[in-house]
Amino acid sequence: MVFIEFEAKDTVIHRLNPVAKLVWFGSIVVLLTLYLEPQPLLIVFLLEVLVGTLAKVPWRKLLARAWWAFLLSIFGGYTYSIWINKPSQFWRIPPELGCKTILVITPEGTPLMGYTAITVGGLLWGTAMTLRVFIGVIAASILTFITPVSDLAMIWAKFLPYKLSFICTTGVRFYPVMIEKIQEIMTAAKSRGWDMSSKNPVKRIRAVFPIVIPASREAMLLADKMALAMEAKAFGVRKPTVLKTIEFTPSDILFIVFSISFTIMMFLMWWFYGFGML
Amino acid sequence: MPIERLINGLKYTVLVLLMTSAETTGCEYAVVLEKVTFTYEGSNSPAIHDINLKVKYGEIVAIMGRTGAGKSTLIYSIGGIIPKYIRGKLTGTIIVDGLDTRKHELYELALHVGVIMDDPEVHITSFTVEEDVALGPCNLGLPKEEVYKRVEFALEATRLSKLRTRNPYNLSGGEKQSLAIAGVLSMRPKILALDEPTSMLDPLGRARVYSVLKDLNKRYGLTIIFSCHDMENIIGLVDRIVIMDRGSIVLDGPPSYVLQRADILEECGIRIPEVTKLALLLKKDGLWKTELPISTEDAYHILQEIISSRPLVRGYRKKELKGHVRKQIPVIKVRKLTHTYPNGVKALMGIELDIYQGEYVALIGQNGSGKTTLARCIAGLLRPSSKEAEILVAGVDVNKAKRTDIVKRIGYVFQIPEHQIFHSTVREELEFGPRNLNLPEEEVKERVDRVLKTLDLEKYQDEWPLSLDRGKRFRVALGSVLAIDPEVIIVDEPTTGQDWNESLYICNLLKKLNEEGRTIIIITHEMDLVARFASRVIVMHKGSVLLDGSPKYVFSRSEILKKTWVKPPEIIRLILRIEEEIGISTDITTVEDLYEYIVGVRSWSS
């Protein structure tokens, strides 16, 4: 898994209610979708590091988990940046600066590729794209580290009908169980020389059967037995008692207000002054 | 909706009234079954037949019998799951805590009888232990205070209070099963019906579950009915043992009574305690004249008398039992093997091991001790974490070799055979491995025919593997590996959920393969089978090899074994005591051997 799991710690961030944490995460996502320039993304990143540090996030563990996502974003971001070389692609920075060519990769008229080059604007765009993924992954990791899934379930339980929210909760709860079972089935198939690396598409599809059939059977059995266990626990008999309610403390409100106002401020700067646009 | 609330309120009142009425019936029996017969939908023959059973309030009753004897059907009938959830034809009467199970909904019955299945995983749906226990009372719409009160009670009763905030996914097997019990306990039933609650657990997990059940009975007076296979562990726990065979009850009474009918128990495929079995053999020869013993202590003093009256060779100097002795060239060579899982758990720490051609090795130890990780690293299914690690199997470096080269040399049979089975016939299933090796069709056919014969599966070759019983499904999984013809076969907990006869059959089968020259590595928690079949035992503890040697050597180190919760088989403990007494050392590890020594077929001096 890319994200780190929840750890119960007594920090100011952990103590916040799940709505406040979700609002903070939402703010980061909004800002990431707005900005195409590295500088404002760095501001968001610093804010994120502050929250992570207050939450005592194990940075080393996080980086160890997500390094391949970062590598992928660097590769993807910079690869695509070679097409960022036209004046119409720049709004705030002068087009002549954005289009300033460092290295031409393929000349005009190249089939499929067209004109590609490493430009100043392209490099900025590539860096921004990399930062977006990097910041997004870290934000999601911090969220999973500070929020137990049961707290998130509390939120969806508030907005969804009980049965539907129960299905969602159970789905998330059984995700690792099913993944473990599928891995076990794959290992069992491997132990008999099973291989999916054939280049023949028909063979590749056929190679999936040793996994799909036992995995589907496991999933159905699990669902059936669980339905039975739930029936014996009077599931759906009457309106259930809600044990936990989401309560707001002054620090929750402060955190929410700060996250929303910061986002609005950054949005207005983007809207009126083009802050964060290329 | 006010009307909905009113209806719910009325329903709850009716439920309370029903509970009260059951309580005031004054009936001394918690469970009464009269002439109960049940036939599953689509089946021609009944799974249970003409069952008459009465269980008093506060009793602990174990239901035993071979696989398919009708134990689960009986448990599910008591819990109301049959016929409410599992359909079929039910005749006769089932009264549980004063309620006729046919006339009440499953959730109503759940307030009287809690049903727990063998796999605890299916009971757990929440993200914390506490929330999971609260689920039932919350579903009943009980007031918050009442829910908390019940959760406290259930957690305390199952010793889970300190784990209340933990994610159930990260609990051990025994803790998960305790949580499943807590989950139904919070519904405040007076009866618990458990279907093989310990079949998927290691010795530590079993001990925890049995001790929780004992506590629930002693402290809270709960009536407990459960099915199981391990007679030895339940003797001190239960008030009654009910023996089932082919859907009927054949024996019913306290353990001391049931064990006197060892002949019936053996006929029903039930493993009787080894000391009882020894006494039974001696009784047939007229040497054992009193009641059959149920514990080592009971057996020891009488055996002492028998032995002292026999012409035994005395005064032999006690030989020092030694650990594993290196010999020849190893078929498996493991050096500096470490393995750390992605979540940071260090499963193996610098393992150094040699396994020789033709050995029958038992890998034992607590769950999480590293047994499976070691076996999977040897089979090339897991990669070592250390670069300097070396694993050679039949001369092939499994860290570098191609998968097809590895599977030709080493086969791995998984704990759950269903994970390995996906074809529509047994024959196709067995052909899968050889086909992956691109063998010619004639050779595939020849190999499959040979394996079908070895495993006695010829008449099932055109059947759907998953329609076979558990024992045969295991044979199919073993056959699918055997068809590849590897030199080494690793078998992961083959006896889980199997009855004694099937477990013996499997181990004998492996012994036969071993005698043909194959090296066998078996991972197991069944110490009786280890003593009986293995030539070498490796005890794993916290990712390292704790002990390595012959079964006798390993089981004589009881103080060291305590660390791993491994309990030496009763018979070995008895043998060691006798040897200590008469001052000799032998190679005896089984009941049959000890019997032969006592009656004089073999000499003590050998």
Task: Describe the protein's topology.
The complex is a heterodimer of chains A (278) and B (606).
Chain A: H1 18-34, H2 38-54, H3 59-80, H4 95-98, E1 101-106, E2 116-119, H5 120-146, H6 149-159, H7 162-190, H8 201-232, H9 250-273
Antiparallel strand pairs in A: 1-2
Helix pairs in contact in A: 1-5, 1-9, 2-5, 3-5, 6-7, 7-8
Chain B: H1 2-23, E1 29-40, E2 48-56, E3 60-64, H2 71-78, H3 81-84, E4 88-96, E5 99-100, H4 106-109, E6 113-116, H5 129-139, H6 144-157, H7 173-185, E7 191-194, H8 203-220, E8 223-228, H9 231-234, E9 240-245, E10 248-253, H10 255-258, H11 262-267, H12 274-284, H13 296-308, E11 330-340, E12 346-356, E13 360-364, H14 371-378, E14 390-393, E15 396-397, H15 403-409, E16 410-413, H16 426-436, H17 441-454, H18 470-482, E17 488-492, H19 500-515, E18 519-523, H20 527-533, E19 536-541, E20 544-549, H21 551-556, H22 558-561, H23 570-582, H24 591-599
Helix pairs in contact in B: 5-6, 5-7, 6-7, 7-8, 12-24, 13-23, 16-17, 16-18
**Integer tally of domains of chain A:** 2
Would you identify the CATH architecture of the largest domain in chain B?
3-Layer(aba) Sandwich
In helices, the fraction of residues of chain A equals 55-70%
How many DSSP-defined strands of chain A?
2
Radius of gyration of chain B: 26 Å
Radius of gyration of chain A: 24 Å
Number of domains of chain B: 3
User: In order across it, which strands form the biggest sheet of chain A?
Assistant: 1-2
How would you characterize the largest beta sheet of chain A? 2 strands, antiparallel
Q: Structural class of chain A, please?
A: mainly alpha
- Give the beta-strand count of chain B: 20
Principal-axes geometry of chain A comes out as flat
For this entry, what is the oligomeric state of its chains? heterodimer
Tell me the major beta sheet of chain B.
6 strands, mixed
- The residue-averaged pLDDT of chain B reads 87
How many helical elements of chain B? 24
Q: What fraction of residues of chain B sit in β-strands?
A: 15-25%
* H/E series of chain A: HHHHEEHHHHH
Give the uncertain stretches of chain B in residue-range form: 16-24, 313-319
| Global shape of chain B | globular
